[in-house]
Amino acid sequence: MSDKLIKRRRLTMSWNFEKEEQWLNEMSRDGMHFKKASMASSFFAKDESVRYTYRLDYQTGQKLGSSKFQEYIDLYQDAGWEYVSSYGSLWHYFRREWQPGEEPRLYTDRDSLIQLYKRLQGVMAVMMLVNLVIMLANMVNLRNFFSGDRLWTIGLPVTVLYLLLFGVLGYGCWRMQKKVNALKL
Amino acid sequence: MKEMLPLTEAFYYILIVLYTEPSHGYGIMQDTEKRSGGRVKLGAGTLYTALNTLLGKGLIEQYPVPEGADSRRKMYAITENGMLVVEAEIARLEELLNVGRQALITKKG
């Protein structure tokens, strides 16, 4: 086992956290164990002698290092989950040693899973609203950019960027709603 | 209070376990699994979310950790309201069971 961390591109979106879990689990199967995540990369430690099952948890209102956060990871630890790291104090990575035929989960009933998806959806909805306010505020400033050739250099690119962000967030909200609906009877 | 019903299995087991005596998260997990004959295994995320919801609704509360116990583990106790809710749920379940059993007997009879 070496202490050197290996960097890999990370391209998953928030609503695809199950896919990220799957990826981390496959990496772990191949001896690459997730340590921490940054904006666009994930870092792994190589160790052929172990294999883990990784799970992501999403919690708002957690301050890393606070006593509330300590209670949170203590509870998960009691349940057999080792705390690995957090990303942006919202996403928390846990793992436990892999066992054949076992599929351990953090969320074991429909209601708590629905709550989890709704927490995610709520944050994306808020981000959309914030984005809207910023966009409108900027539109007022940018109004003079929309005239003449500035339209192509500033006006249009900025608008496209905002719309793209809207699209991504809107799509995320919609995906969460689909997941919630699929769970409801 | 009625709007809390029906309780999810997780809520129900947490309240039932705490009805007997105050406990910590890990104790609730183990006790739930034992009492359900191994059927109900509360995931850490499910338990954590449920405890926070129950605290928020005032059905359970923090309980001071007794001397000598592991102070790292936060303890929970059921409140008066929590007892009322779980008793109402048991009455509701009893009605459901009775109606169902009655139907089975009538059919066979």
Name some characteristics of this structure.
heterodimer, A: 185 residues, alpha+beta, 2 domains, three-stranded antiparallel sheet, 6 strands, B: 109 residues, Arc Repressor Mutant, subunit A, 4 helices
Major sheet of chain B: 3 strands, antiparallel
End-to-end separation of chain B:
38 Å
Tally of DSSP β-strands of chain B:
3
What is the strand arrangement across the widest sheet of chain B? 1-3-2
| CATH hierarchy, class of chain B | Mainly Alpha
The share of residues in extended strands of chain A comes to 15-25%
Number of helices of chain B: 4
Tell me roughly what share of residues is in helical segments of chain B: 55-70%
Q: Which radius of gyration of chain B do the C-alpha atoms yield?
A: 16 Å
Tally of structural domains of chain B: 1
Q: Name the average pLDDT of chain B.
A: 93
Number of strands of chain A: 6
Low-confidence sequence ranges of chain A:
none
Domain Transcription regulator PadR N-terminal (chain B): 14-85
InterPro entries (chain B): Metal_resp_DNA-bind_regulator (IPR052509), Tscrpt_reg_PadR_N (IPR005149), WH-like_DNA-bd_sf (IPR036388), WH_DNA-bd_sf (IPR036390)
Pfam families (chain B): PadR
Organism (chain B): Paenibacillus glycanilyticus
Describe this structure as you would to a colleague.
The complex is a heterodimer of chains A (185) and B (109). With 185 residues, chain A is an alpha+beta fold. Chain A has helices at 17-29, 67-78, 110-142, 150-183, and strands spanning 5-9, 32-37, 41-46, 52-58, 82-87, 91-97. Chain A has four helices and six strands. In chain A, the strands form two sheets. Chain A has a three-stranded antiparallel β-sheet. Chain A has a three-stranded antiparallel β-sheet with strand order 4-6-5. In chain A, helix 3 (110-142) packs antiparallel against helix 4 (150-183). The longest helix of chain A is centred in the last third of the chain and has 34 residues, at 150-183. Chain B is built from four helices and three strands; from the N terminus they run H-E-H-H-E-E-H. Chain B has 109 residues and is mainly α. In chain B, helix 1 (9-20) crosses helix 2 (25-35) and helix 1 packs across helix 4. Chain B has one domain (2-108): Arc Repressor Mutant, subunit A. Helix content of chain B is 60%, strand content 9%. Chains A and B meet through helix 2 and helix 3 of A and helix 2 and helix 3 of B.
